[in-house]
Specification:
- By secondary structure, this protein is α/β, with parallel strands linked by helices.
- Helix content is about 45%, strand content about 10%.
- The chain has helices at about 5-15, 20-30, 35-40, 50-70, 75-80, 85-90, 105-110, 145-150, 165-170, 205-215, 230-240, 260-275, 300-320, 325-355, 360-370, 380-385, 395-405, 425-445; strands spanning about 95, 130-135, 140-145, 170-175, 185-190, 220-225, 250, 285-290, 420, 425.
- Helix 11 (about 230-240) links the parallel strand 6 (about 220-225) and strand 7 (about 250).
- Helix 4 packs antiparallel against helix 18 (about 425-445).
- The chain is globular.
- Mean pLDDT is about 80; it is low at about 1-10, about 15-25 and about 450-470.
């Protein structure tokens, strides 16, 4: 919280006035929230039927065209990222990260208008949030225990069970009927305390943060003018954010506590502290304001703070408006990775079969291949024969561990992954990547029903299934 002299005086006067006067004083203390309603378009109605229908088509494409290859070549054991139906249908996730007591919980209360309500998130000057709190939409106000959230397959949080029961005790969900929560889910995280050892948390804090970072559509990293120092835990957090720079928004909160000249110095100090941690040509945008429900402190840049706030809300609204397009793009990106993985495993299998002879030792032969894949042109042959970008190729060292768990003899080549009724795995996933998913995306942007190209997937149109990757 950020008490100022004027606010403290006003609150003390509430004890001496009538109920009617108290309501008038409170309305003068609280900030006008009309710009939040307007910017996020909470009053507008959306056609949820079209949205649900498009999600159903997306789910069907994933299950029929991408998941079969994912299962056949055990992609989840390489990436440790299983896509569930709950993740496909989930709302955009906004993640709040940062040091302790910088105003993360207060910001969520402000966006949802929860101030002075019994179910608002608890805030204070001391570290107050010790749990990962998921604020989501529900028909009534209630809290959901972490073990219940992980056990519910309809939600997207079931994979969190792998972090153990100690973590599930530190996970809590809050459901409430709110227009904004119909379109987005907020996740409040425990504040970073640099003098605390990771072991004292009782669960792998960084791994849990990485799980949420990987699934977040927007990441708010919040600071305040008194907590700009960068320690080991915050440095580790920014390493985990590498590659997600487009989703990051840096927020300098509680800015009305400073005079304009001091604010400029703090703004420069924040940039100086974060520059070594964010290795990009263009640094992320820093939003300067005071995100809580009470009025700005006197003699501060009110108009500047409000414009910054509206700009941040526009970023949030863009994520909400583009949630379906982002979901389709995410599934397509996942499909591309699964396809590359299938092609690489197929190449390892083919090379192993070519090198094997009657007197060869299978373990020694494959060890030679997996230890030096460049000698056998494993990765180069994928680039030469397919439209795969070299920048999308996974780390080759990961396949040494992958085949250490999954013997190469347990996989069939792609030429054997065809059936008369089901078609070929490679053709189906390529059709999804190049045709079905772009077609669904264009139908969303044009507002029309998706039109897919004629499919011979079920019968093969009377022909034997073909595989473009079959060796001549």
């Amino acid at each position: 919280m950020k008490p100022t002299v004027s606010i403290c005086c006003m609150l003390s006067l509430l004890l001496l006035i009538t109920a009617e006067e108290e309501e008038d004083v409170l309305s003068s203390i609280l900030r006008d929230r009309s710009h939040i309603e307007e910017t996020l378009r909470l009053a507008s109605e959306e056609n949820s039927g079209d949205y649900a229908a498009a999600l159903q088509k997306l789910r069907k494409i994933y299950h029929s065209s991408i998941k079969p290859m994912e299962q056949a070549y055990k992609y989840n054991e390489l990436r440790q990222h299983e896509i569930s139906d709950g993740e496909i249908t989930s709302k955009p996730m906004v993640l709040f990260l940062g040091p302790w007591s910088v105003g993360k919980s207060s910001m969520i209360n402000y966006l949802l208008g929860l101030q002075d309500l019994p179910y608002q998130l608890y805030t204070g000057a001391e570290p107050t949030t010790s749990e990962f709190t998921v604020i989501m939409h529900g028909e009534k106000i209630r809290s959901v225990e972490g073990i219940v959230m992980a056990a519910d397959s309809s939600r997207s949080f079931s994979p969190l069970e792998k972090f153990g029961q100690n973590f599930l005790e530190k996970l809590i969900g809050i459901e409430m009927p709110h227009k904004l929560l119909e379109r987005v889910t907020f996740v409040d995280t425990p504040g970073i305390i640099e003098n605390r050892k990771q072991q004292e948390r009782g669960y792998p804090f960084n791994d849990v943060c990485q799980w949420f970072i990987d699934r977040a559509d927007l990441i708010f990293v919040v600071f305040d003018p008194t907590k700009l120092d960068v320690g080991l835990e915050l440095e580790m957090l920014f390493r985990q954010l590498k590659g997600r720079e487009s989703q990051i928004r840096i927020i300098l909160n509680k800015a009305d506590n400073l005079a304009t000249q001091d604010l400029m110095r703090v703004y420069g100090a924040l940039f100086w502290s974060l520059a070594p941690l964010i290795n990009v040509t263009e640094p992320p945008r820093v939003y300067v304001s005071s995100f809580w429900p009470y009025d700005y402190a006197p003699d501060t840049s009110r108009e500047l703070f409000k414009r910054e706030e509206i700009s941040l809300l526009e970023d949030l609204n863009q994520v909400i408006e583009n949630r379906l397009e982002n979901k389709i793009a995410f599934i397509r990106q996942h499909g591309i990775r699964v396809r590359i993985h299938g092609l690489l495993v197929d190449r390892y299998v083919q090379t192993f079969k070519d090198k094997m002879s009657f007197f060869s030792d299978p373990e020694l032969v494959f060890k030679e291949i997996v230890d030096d894949p460049d000698k056998f042109y494993i990765f180069k042959s994928i680039l030469a024969k397919t439209n795969v970008s070299k920048f999308d190729l996974p780390n080759r060292d990961a396949y040494r561990d992958f085949f250490g768990i999954n013997p190469v003899t347990s996989f069939k080549p792609l030429t054997a992954q065809c059936s008369y009724m089901g078609g070929c795995l490679l053709e189906k996933i390529e059709r999804a990547i190049t045709g079905d998913l772009p077609g669904l995306l264009s139908s969303i942007t044009s507002g029309k029903n998706p039109i897919f190209p004629p499919s011979c997937e079920a019968t093969g149109c009377g022909e034997k299934p073909k595989n473009r990757y079959r060796r001549n």
